[in-house]
Design goal:
The protein is α/β, with parallel strands linked by helices. The chain is built from eight helices and twelve strands. Helix 2 packs parallel to helix 3 and helix 6 packs across helix 8. It binds calcium ion. Calcium ion binds next to loops.
């Protein structure tokens, strides 16, 4: 899962990036409305955290432009204290949720998790496929109740697939949703991650769909 964070306060941005990364997300950061708008329009994110008070282009204008362009990525807005009119305008402009400053970053993380789940049609924080369970709150993965240790990239891959259980997911789509912009993608191919995740889980819930990509499958439902 990959997020875009648009926040002009460098300290707050750095702290939020750290906490959100700790929650198992890849993060791209932007410090002004123009650059943030461009990234949100051209890259594929699972959710966007958007401060409303931004240089060059304000957050509300950024959000309106995305929605006009039919970009439906879930957006959490950060509003100023007592800015009730900001919340109303933000929600009216297509924001999915808001957090009021000052906030605990953990609250932003929890709301982002919920937004991503809802966007994927998943109500419960615990996602399962066969004997494999992924808890989006604790970022823990278990097989038959036994914990499995995944690296950050392996977790992102499995989490993206488990949020989209019915879908055939291409390598390009996985690439877009598990790496941030600065990641060295060439030396870390998706195939390698898939192989490692399969091996660590010990059950094959990731099936290769020839020429198209990968799909999550419940081993019990496979006709072998
Ligand atoms: Ca600001």
């Amino acid at each position: 899962m990959r997020l875009l964070l648009i926040e002009d306060d460098p300290d707050l941005s750095r702290q939020m990036k750290m906490v959100l990364e700790g929650g198992g997300y890849s993060i791209d950061v932007s410090f002004d409305g123009e650059d943030g708008h461009f990234l949100g329009e051209t890259e594929n994110y699972d959710a966007i955290v958007l401060d409303l008070g931004l240089p060059i282009m304000d957050g509300l204008s950024v959000l309106k432009k995305w929605r006009e362009a039919k970009i439906m990525t879930p957006v959490l807005i950060l509003t100023a204290r007592d800015g009730w009119s900001d919340k109303v305008s933000g929600l009216d402009a297509g924001a999915d949720d808001y957090v009021t400053k000052p906030f605990k970053i953990e609250e932003v993380l929890a709301r982002v998790r919920a937004l991503i789940r809802r966007a994927a049609g998943q109500a419960s924080p615990e996602l399962s496929c066969g004997t494999v369970t992924l808890n989006t709150n604790s970022s823990k993965v278990t097989v038959d109740g036994m914990p499995v240790r995944l690296t950050a990239q392996e977790y992102k891959l499995l989490s993206y697939m488990m949020h989209h259980p019915e879908k055939i997911i291409s390598r390009t789509e996985l690439t877009e949703h598990i790496y941030d912009q600065d990641f060295d993608r060439d030396s870390n191919t998706i195939e390698v991650f898939v192989t490692r995740v399969r091996k660590k889980l010990g059950v094959n819930i990731i099936s290769t769909v020839r020429g198209l990509g990968y799909q999550l499958v419940n081993p019990k439902e496979q006709n072998i």
